[in-house]
Amino acid sequence: MQRKFRILSAIAAGSLALAAVGISAADGTGRAAAHPALAAQMASFPPVSLDDCPTLRTGSSSAECVAQLQTDLNSLPGNHLGVDGIFGSQTRDAVAMFQQAHGLKQDGIVGPGTKKALDAALSVPTPTLAPPSSASAPASSATAPGQQATDPGQGIALGAGQDNCVDYSQGQVWQTSTSWVRARYRFCLLESGDGATVQPIVQVQFDWPTACSLSVGFPPSASVDCPLSTLDKQNLVIFQAYTNIANTPVTFQIPLAISQPNGLTYRGWCNYPPTNATKNTREYSFATKDRPTITCHGPLFDRLPGIYTVSTPGPRGDVKYDGSPARIMNGGSVQYISS
Q1: Cys-Cys crosslink for 320: which of 24, 240, 263, 332, Cβ 3.0 to 4.6 Å?
Q2: Fold of 17-122
């Protein structure tokens, strides 16, 4: 089968993608650490088919194939790699995040399985969000779970001192033979009261509603109703630890990315280790809190005029006792408009 490929696009020098394995890439002040301008000289590469390329990994010498990989990854939300034909740490981390979102081994190596998944992902149209009109008002804060929040259909206008959160959405009902939970997430871009900085956030919430519809939220999700047998199960979810890309045991993981108006991109993961060392598990239960919520904070960034895009390939966790691979929620993104 002849694989379709994306035409390589030129990326302006200085549009450097900054990747991080963890969410801790900040200096002692909590502000995002300054990075020198390391943008490589952009070169033009002819388009190729990744199917015709060897397995790609850190240090691969096939520049044309690496450049095509970088272009393909840039066609997906949250990626702004320099198309330089160099398979370095930034490209490796972008591959690992893609693998995570598609249930593949997170080794940063582009073999047949990753190529196939990438080809399938590129075949799905990616929705885009149009910028708001000049009459758009700043978004209001949405703090109460389930409260109708700002509608990102035309982008979110940032408001100083506000969390600028959207509705919880991208929900799924996870159940085993003994327990169940509804898992869902939302984006926020917290702006300081003086309007000087912004901070990207992804929040994951677990709850056990009596009415399990997910027909509202950002973006409006298809209705997901709890099976009739669900409400008779225990109101808890237990995550079994698995090993992440850094060979560290985690029970839940939230990838977060932010693309800034200056062209820089930050990528990181929030990792949640086991709380029960004996059983190597972490438990969230209705009995301990109505809606347990875990928050993944990115570092602080200077607020610049333009568009910020906060995205995630999808939070994930290995639900214990369900006999299935790690559950991965659908990825998503939202644009924030900074004036």
Answers
A1: 240
A2: Muramoyl-pentapeptide Carboxypeptidase; domain 1 (1.10.101)
